[in-house]
Amino acid sequence: MSDQVPILELKGVNKGFGPVQVLKNVDLSIYPGQVTSLVGDNGAGKSTLVKGIAGIYPFDSGEYLFEGKPVHVSEPRQANALGIEVVYQDLALCDNLDVVHNMFLGREQSKGIVLDEITMERRAKETLAGLSVRTLKSVRQQVSSLSGGQRQTVAIARAVLWNSKVVILDEPTAALGVAQTEQVLNLVRRLADNGLAVIIISHNMNDVLRVSDNVACLYLGNMAAQVQAQHLTHSQIVELITTGRSGDMGLHPEVLNGTTV
Predict the structure, then answer these.
(1) Which CATH code is given to the segment(s) 1-83+165-261?
(2) Per the database record, which ranges form the ABC transporter domain (predicted)?
(3) Which of 11, 48, 159, 193 satisfies CB 3.0 to 4.6 Å to 85 for a cystine?
């Protein structure tokens, strides 16, 4: 996949809920400066995998390595401390607050007992400028006044404000029009170009092929394949998602025939 050491690597991770095994010996390698798309049908295990990485659902077994070293992540605070941030589909923005206060929500800067508005505004502007964001008129705009693409931009900027190393985006273009999708995909590409490792969950194969360096395909809780995007076609991704195999890529027949599924 790459000569680099993965910043985040999972080896043989498993996760079950009662009798239901949701993730089965999943391997995943995430590299700095690259966009990895995580794809799979509904119920394939994408959300569980991401929540495991984020510490919401600790994995039952397997190895979790960060920057080449084994780590234990059993709660979100531990993932955040490593530099892992997740932007969920609902964005978790407060409409009644402005851009600055949303970016610092729950992590407000203060001077004594009062908020340090000057520092927060400066850091918000610097972060947005560093991402080449030019679609916001003011960092003091209410979030309620922003378009879907602008809201997604604010949520992503909030994630990278904290010296993050890995940013996970859950369906970042799902509710957006063509122009706003373009803005967000360009921003995703800039995150990777700035050296961050980016994971995207997406159902849109055109977006996946356009912005990804590599694609990880889950099938019924198994990692069917993780392949460089330049070696994949739209139809091959769809085959991997729907059948777990495409040509010589994907799961071994014994897995597909049910011996380990």
Answers:
(1) 3.40.50.300
(2) 8-245
(3) 159
